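HOLO CASE FILE
Compound: pyridoxine-5'-phosphate
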Amino acid sequence: MPVLIRSEAFDSTPISLGTVEKTGARLLDRYGLEQAELSILLVNDKRMAELNQFYRHKSGPTNVLSFPMPSGETQTGGTMLGDIVISVDKARREAELRNISCHRRIERLLVHGFVHLLGYDHERSPQDAEIMLAEENKIIDYLSKHQRRNGMVNLAINVDHVATLRQARGINEPDPVTAAGICELAGAGGIVVHLREDRRHIQDRDVVLMRQMVKTKLNLEMGASEEIIKIALDLKPDMITLVPEKRQELTTEGGLDVAGQVTRLKEVVDRMREASIPVSMFIDPESKQIKAAREAGATFVEIHTGRYSDAANEDEADREFELIAAAAEEAYESGLRVNAGHGLNYLNTSRVAALDTIEELSIGHAVMARAIFVGLDQAVREMLALLF
Ligand code: PXP
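Model generated. Tokens follow.
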């Protein structure tokens, strides 16, 4: 194992050890040090203060410490580069000040510690500080271009709400088809529409026109009813997303219970496969649903981010985020392609977008709500800016 990661920061913000470990591995990769070992330890402020006092005779916690091990030999005959210790508490506070995710801040600290291990030292002289900063920036740039296993995250915009406004008046505007065009021109990589059985917003005419004009990717969200399955087979969208559908709900509530209907859903997948339509299943972040989606033959899962988005406080959001990160990792590792969505907005999306297992985010309400004030083009561009 080239990266040995351990966390003692049990009482701190939960962060995905897998994500930090992968960043460590990419750093080794970047410098051709795949044979070397790097140890990363995450601690809380109390432990960091002890280490800072012991090794540097400085009081209080610092954000990152590195301990190079120039001649360390590993059991496999490689070299031990050294240890990097990061305080998750301090990283979280620094992230809040910078309005970035804790993961992003930890990544920056990891890079800083890593560059120290390579022999750079900003404390030697102002000139050395400049050289070290330039190297760090180079790596951050490299990571931002190479860190996603899935390439850049794609933004798919759900235009149902435009149709909701139209239906409220029972006339022909605003037109969700025009909205789809504007979203694509602004840089969206896909359009999502939910053709509900009760046709409360999107109409048959909308999906027919969108099939003709959408240049990126048309994702038809749908319940697995026979009527809508037939429409999908006829329409041939670029993909479908199966969701649970209840007539009384305001929006899709909860994920699809795939585990409870594998045989039935497998039939739907088989019919779609014959028409070359990939199937995604909208599921809660649960292992049992991921396994069932695999069994049913889905190509994608869309992880439900609703509980994360609706969290009442930061701790709850952190817990829900960890469930999403773990589910996305499990689904990705099992061979599924992974999308995510529901309730994402301008404040909570970056963190999910930073998960490199996720290929696409499906966002509707927040973008349309902002579009009322700033225009749809700008609302889409502002969301896109948060993804990278
Ligand atoms: N994904 C699915 C499966 C959905 O049902 C919805 C809501 O229509 C979304 C994503 C988008 O959710 P929101 O409108 O809250 O961004």
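CASE NOTES: DSSP finds 16 helices and twelve strands in the chain. The longest strand covers residues 64-73.
CLOSED: yes
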